[in-house]
Amino acid sequence: MGSHRAAVHHSPSTWQQSCPSPASPERSALVAEVAKRILALGEGRLLVGIDGLTAAGKTSFGHELAETVAAAGRPALRATLDDFKNPWKDRHLYDRESGEGYYRNAYDYDAARRLLLDPCRSPEATSCALCSIDPLTQLDHSAERTPLAPGSVLIVDGVFAFRPQIDAYWDYRVWLQVDPELSVRRGAERDQDWAGSEAESIHRNRYLVAERIYLDEVDPLPRMDLVIDNSAFEAPYVVASG
To answer: What's the predicted TM-score (pTM) here?
Structure first.
């Protein structure tokens, strides 16, 4: 590990959460251990995927992990798959509001590969885009480039991160485990501002249905390097380690 702090580069998207304050010494120790395992993979570029049910805490965990990686001297890049969705203006062309439609049609994996994952995987590339379409403003940020260093660590969170379209890119895979009902409750509380009274229905009937299709079709858990129970933010614990 390095002796100086490196930078953390964040997506320009407005769909952002701030890095949470440390919830407990136990959580900080777990995040530090995960960072240590990732950095032990080598000094070249590394791509880390963080998945789990909606509102499992993926974005917060990714931010915490990036801060720890940067503190160890490695440049960290943060991205979320929500910044690589098909634009809302085209939604009349496909179903995106049912569970099945959300799973099949919401995400633009071609853009994620072209703008983010392929450049990070290529030693010759010197920059990447951390956002395609802002999911809130619908502004196109694909031309905004973030520098890539030889030792950059890209940390990407998002549902369906281990679908076949992008599964081969990851050097390290993390699954955050929470009960489905906790996922619905957390998500509905989080999205109350924009979804209002429909928040719980959206999470139960769209996102949770989509997750079940994903788990049935892809069965990602056996490929995880690490499964963490994230039901209690102050007391996460390792369920399985590959």
So the answer is: 0.95
